[in-house]
Amino acid sequence: MATLTSNLNFLQPTGFKVVISRTNYPNIEYFVQSVTHPGATVPAVEVPSLRIRSVPVAGDKIAYDELSLTLVLDENMESYKEMHSWLERIVNFGQVNQRDIPPEDQIPTFADITLSILSSHNNENVKFRYKDCVPTGIGTINFTSVENTTYTTFDATFRFSTFEIL
Questions:
Q1: What's the pTM?
Q2: Is 16-39+65-165 a CATH 2.60.40 domain?
C-alpha cells in the first residue's frame, strides 16, 4: 500500500540543472533555460475478437517522446554552434573512417544527459539520467527588430535509449 510523502513542499519549475559533458558541450550545458521531460506511452495491442470490436491489451514496449531543451543564445552563438556541430558529426560519422581521425580529436556522437531536480534549498534531490542521447534537431532562431527584454532562444531535441531515475 502506498503512503503519502512526508515532503509536502511543491516542486519549483526553476529548480533544475543539466549536465551533458563539460568537455565537449560546455555552452549547451550552461545556457539551458528549460527542459521538457519526455512523456511515455505503452501503446495497446488490439486483439481481434468475433462479433465485438477488438479488445485492447497492454503493450510490451514503452515509447518515449523526445527530450527537449530550450537554450538561450549568447552573442557569439556558441551553444548553437556546438549543437550544429554535433548534428554534423552524426551525419558525417558514417562517411568518415574513424581510424583516420586522431584519438585526441574524436568526439562521441552520443552522450548521457543528466537532469538534476533541486529541492527548495537548491540541493540535488532527484536525477534523471537519459542514456545514449543523440540530437535529432535544432529549432529555429527568430530575429526581430522590435526591442523587448526577452532573449533569443532555440530548441534542441534528443532521442535516447532509456532513462533512469536516481
A1: 0.81
A2: no
